[in-house]
Amino acid sequence: PRVYLNGEFTPLSQAKISVLDRGFIFGDGIYEVVPVYGRKPFRMAQHLARLERSLAAIRIPNPHTVQQWQDLVGKLIETSDAQDQIVYLQLTRGVAKRDHAFPAQVVPTVFGMSSPFARPSAQARENGVKTVSMPDERWLHCEIKSTSLLGNVLARQFAADRDVPEVVMFRDGHLSEGSSSNVWVVKDGRLLAPLKDNLILEGIRYGFIEDMAAARGIPLEMRQISRAEVDAADELMLSSATKEILPVVSLDGKPVGNGRPGPVYARLREGYDEAIARL
Ligand code: PLP
């Protein structure tokens, strides 16, 4: 497959960066993951707005206009025959002599690729997924979609070691998120979500689910959620570009609600599939 690197499309095997790239040396970069359905990007404007916010947060100059980013994503989609794709974009603070402080002259490294998107299995959608809990040991700027992902990598491996696809993390007794997903709680027909603050990444699906809840008359509360509330939940759900929206049927070996995907999940899943079909 062909990938994009610093202005050119090249075969993946020929795309090379310097070992002094600050993405390699410091994890000094940010990224985006845009799902594509039927060759059309889903919620592209929101993804590009978040890319802009991530760049601003770590003070990397944005090398492209929105139009240029849209054109690049369009060209990345053309590199693949797949109908459904995952477009990955990454920017780092470029190549410089090793020094933690920013270099005087920054030429960001810009990388893009598209891969076929294996959507969640019917098994996961219909029967749900298992999760385990763990303390959230990450830093205090989880709102930045940074490539410094060691905390997330260790959390995802904590799940893998226990043969489940995702963790549910808690910080100071409150729900934060998964290793690479947002987490949703349902209690008495109400949808609960952690605050959009510095302790979670605001998923593009977070906004989408907010919109769907409003359109479908599902009451939504965004606030701190205690461990006790998670344990007493009627439903739990995960959302991310690659998981879309998935029901969680167990946490630490205990069933969530009645142990089956619930009615609020079913309504949101229907909304998700409708939005994709309309793209
Ligand atoms: N939280 C974290 C830590 C993530 O890495 C992700 C993305 O994969 C999400 C939440 C969900 O974000 P999105 O819906 O934009 O994929």
Give a short overview:
The protein has helices at 22-26, 44-58, 66-78, 122-127, 150-161, 204-215, 227-231, 263-278; strands at 2-5, 8-11, 29-37, 40-41, 85-92, 109-116, 129-135, 166-171, 174-175, 182-187, 190-193, 220-222, 235-240, 244-251, 254-255. With 279 residues, it is α+β, with helices and mostly antiparallel strands. The protein has 2 domains: 2-116, Aminotransferase class 4, branched-chain amino acid transferase, N-terminal domain (D-amino Acid Aminotransferase, Chain A, domain 1); 122-278, D-amino Acid Aminotransferase, subunit A, domain 2 (D-amino Acid Aminotransferase, Chain A, domain 2), CATH 3.20.10.10.
Structural class: alpha+beta
Question: Which small-molecule species are bound to the chains here?
Answer: pyridoxal-5'-phosphate
Strand count: 15
Roughly how many Å is the radius of gyration?
19 Å
- In CATH terms, the superfamily of the largest domain is D-amino Acid Aminotransferase, subunit A, domain 2
Proportion of β residues?
25-35%
Number of domains: 2
What is the second-level CATH architecture of the largest domain?
Alpha-Beta Barrel
Organism: Pigmentiphaga daeguensis
Family: Belongs to the class-IV pyridoxal-phosphate-dependent aminotransferase family.
GO molecular function: transaminase activity
Protein name: D-amino acid aminotransferase
